[in-house]
Specification:
Layout (H helix, E strand, L loop, with lengths): L7 E6 L17 H8 L1 H6 L3 H6 L10 H9 L13 E6 L8 H9 L1 H54 L4 H27 L3 H13 L2 H7 L4 E2 L4 E6 L2 E2 L6 E2 L2 E10 L4 E11 L2 E11 L7 E6 L2 H4 L1 H18 L1 H39 L1
Antiparallel strand pairs: 1-2, 3-7, 4-7, 5-6, 7-8, 8-9, 9-10
Helix pairs in contact: 5-6, 6-7
Organism: Fraxinus pennsylvanica
Keywords: Membrane, Transmembrane, Transmembrane helix
Protein name: Import inner membrane translocase subunit
């Protein structure tokens, strides 16, 4: 049985290149063009004669090196006054193209290989579509899966209980249904707490580390207190279905918040990653403004490289927090002004009501 091989189709495009030759120059030509001129019958009988006559576009450059090559090929090149060149274009097609005889022959000889090649060709595209569908509808899919698991668990528990204990049908059905729903909900909360990050817990972890650090307490003064002003960004997480292989992506949390000690204030930057259900602190740094000179940055965990991760995401979070801290005094002054305006308005309203009552009493006495 002959092995299939790739076929090559050669398109021969014959193009005539004419150039004027000076009287002093020696005319030359190619051996192939000389053959075409010497054998006119061959040219007329050739199926490419029409193609040759209609083709006038130059594909080969008329450089001085090309005539030298053809001069070596044709010993009679000096007898002709014009030089003609022949251009070739090669186009190669691989075998087993869809719809060709080789492809059909290959499918008949090796159907398993043909199916495997087709499957590998469309696997990546199908994987991308499935991944996009999962990202759009993962909540609905998880909800439907939870309902199915709840129903299966309910039927299993009810069947086991009815085998050993005689219970009333209504109490057993609804009781085990509630038990199954509670078990599924508990499992969902467990997995959520294992693979998600709670910013409040990250804040408490950071404050505990800072209040037990001797260097930070020495610089800022004890005790350290935080505020309700916090800014955080979540990244990653979820299930990735790339190449039909489900994989849990790591989740990160970038948190920044101000703290205040007895001597100085500071701004805390934290980066935490959830790894196998545990919090892994990658960065814990405090920026302390100094009276003279630039701010001082103290690293408890991590270094300057971790601080610049994500294109300086921590520094991007720092700007709104600093602006909010700078605007605190302005907000306090505005609140105080509004309170004074409200108090004055209430006093004017009370005086107006008092005058109206006095006027009513005077009118009643006059009558």
């Amino acid at each position: 049985m002959s092995k299939p091989s790739s076929s090559k189709i050669i398109f021969r495009c014959f193009h005539q290149v004419s150039s004027k030759v000076s009287a002093d120059a020696t005319p030359i030509c190619s051996g192939i063009s000389n053959f075409l001129k010497v054998n006119p019958k061959t040219n007329q009988s050739s199926p490419f004669s029409t193609w040759i006559s209609n083709s006038r576009k130059t594909y080969l450059p008329s450089s001085p090196n090309v005539p030298r090559i053809f001069e070596k090929l044709d010993p009679n090149a000096k007898l002709l006054q014009n030089r003609n060149f022949l251009g070739f274009r090669y186009i190669s097609f691989k075998g087993y193209e869809v719809g060709s005889k080789n492809f059909a022959k290959y499918v008949v000889q090796n159907p398993v290989g043909a199916v495997k090649n087709a499957f590998l060709r469309y696997r990546e595209a199908a994987g991308l579509h499935i991944d996009a569908f999962w990202k759009r509808n993962y909540l609905a899919i998880l909800g439907a899966g939870g309902v199915v698991v709840c129903i299966l668990l309910w039927r299993v528990l009810f069947g086991i209980a009815s085998t050993f204990i005689s219970l009333s049908e209504g109490m057993a059905k609804y009781g085990f249904l509630a038990l199954s729903a509670a078990m599924v909900a508990f499992a969902g909360l467990y997995f959520r707490s294992r693979f998600t990050i709670n910013p409040d817990k990250v804040y408490r972890m950071a404050m505990r580390r800072l209040n037990t650090s001797a260097g930070i307490l020495e610089v800022m003064g004890a005790p350290l207190t935080g505020t309700d002003l916090r800014a955080y960004v979540m990244s990653g997480g979820g299930i990735n279905l790339k190449n039909f292989q489900p994989r849990l992506r790591g989740k990160r949390c970038f948190l920044i918040f101000p703290i205040q000690g007895s001597e100085r204030k500071g701004l805390v930057s934290v980066e935490v990653k959830k790894k196998k259900g545990e919090y892994d602190v990658k960065l814990l740094a405090v920026d302390i403004p100094m009276a003279s000179g630039p701010d001082q940055r103290l690293f408890l965990i991590g270094n300057e490289e971790e601080y610049r991760i994500g294109g300086g995401l921590i520094s991007e979070l720092r700007d709104p927090v600093v602006k909010a801290l700078a605007a605190t005094k302005e907000f306090e002054d505005r609140d105080q002004l509004e309170d004074e305006e409200d108090a004055e308005r209430e006093l004017q309203e009370a005086e107006r009501k008092h005058r109206e009552e006095i006027e009513k009493l005077e009118k009643s006495d006059s009558q």
